[in-house]
Design goal:
The complex is a heterodimer of chains A (249) and B (235). Chain A has 249 residues and is mainly α. Helix content of chain A is 84%, strand content 0%. The model of chain A has no long low-confidence stretch (mean pLDDT 90). The chains are: A mainly alpha (249), B alpha/beta (235).
Amino acid sequence: MKSLLLRLTTTAGFVALWWWATDVLSAESPILSNMSPLDALTALERVFAAGSIWGSIGVTIERLGLGLAIAAVFGVAIGWLLGTLRQVEQSASIVVQFLRMVSPLSWAPVAIVLFGIGTAPVVFLIAIAAVWPIALNTSAGIKALDPNWTLLARSLGASRLEIIRTIVVPGVRAHVLTGLRLALGVAWIVLVPAEMLGVDSGLGYEILSARDMIDYQLLAGVMLLIGLLGFAMDWVAQTAFKRWAAATA
Amino acid sequence: MGDLAANLRGVSIRRGVGKNARKIIDGLDLEVRRGEVLVIVGGSGVGKTTLLHALAGLTTPDSGSIDIASSGLVFQQPLLLPWLSVRQNVKLGFRFKANRGRISGGRRAIDAAVNSLLTRLGIAQLADRKPSELSGGQAQRVAIARTIVASPEILLLDEPFSALDAATRSNLQQWLLELRQELSLTIVLVTHDIDEAITLGDRIVLLGEPGQPLTEYRGDASAKAHIIAQLEYSI
């Protein structure tokens, strides 16, 4: 109860600071004075009432889901290889660290050349950004498995497939879920700038569109919406993963 | 095999490859009689665990033969799966296809067998706990329950009490003797603790260097001085 009160107070303090920075400190600024909390909420009310924003949210979430799904498939496969085959891990470590450190957005020109303009390059950028947290966590999970568990399962008569189903998958699950949650955060951060690359829908596009229409109220509103959606998704993921991890821990 | 629960003839096991290959066990003959507690002692690296793994079918001998009744192995560490409850860990004994045939009646029969065993072993109150909530002694009891739930004829134990404190170890040794009586188990125990060997063993076998014949003792106090002398000699 005390911590909830503290959180609410801090959040209220942040909103007050936002209001002070825009409505008081930047009252003379033609841009910032239109980006107060009240302006953001008014703009959001307007676009939700018109219904236009729902399409953008849907498209953005769809791209996020697709990108994460592709990242999960490749990430788990790469993590599996890195975690199980020491030679692969040793030989690929420099390449993996290098690729991990290349900013996902620097792939944008390559993505556009490869996939043209539209949803495909956005999904590609999300997948590139999200694949490493999943791969590295999967690999760490596999390495954390006690090799004696396999010996134990074999002593109880388990086949190779039964060992994977009974020991490896549940043993690695919590790590993969942690990787997915981290990937969700990274993907959400990359998604918005990725949607500024020549697409004509999505929340990133809405930001550019608001700027082009000199609608700074809407700009603040979409920024607020992006933050709220990211917060909500992380909360849902955290709650769901905690529940799944509790079932496997 | 008649009175024998296991019969090993001329068993040799090698480890390593090429120049690094060395024989761990060389031409070993050993008989395990039904209903006995056979204790295997020996210095470090003489192949006690390898022998036990060969009996459990985890290691295939390079030559020789092993005839053995159904067996179950208990490791030095309990190796309970941390994401499963005690009950689910014990159920693992039935989970794999190879052991499922040992009980008929499906899931309900398995649940009944597990619950009944946990009660018989005096650990029913632990059934819903996770391994992290168990003491070392409790965890090892659960590990033994997991091994015997599918009713193996031979229980193979690899220094199962070595990580426990003296009081818990003594307690578990008595518990194991009661268990053996109640379930008419044949037990093969590997230990480096001579007192444990004498407390539990009907027969004690001293495993020497590869190729050396086994030295056998009766499991009574008179064996202790001989075994210690032999071990010191071999060290």
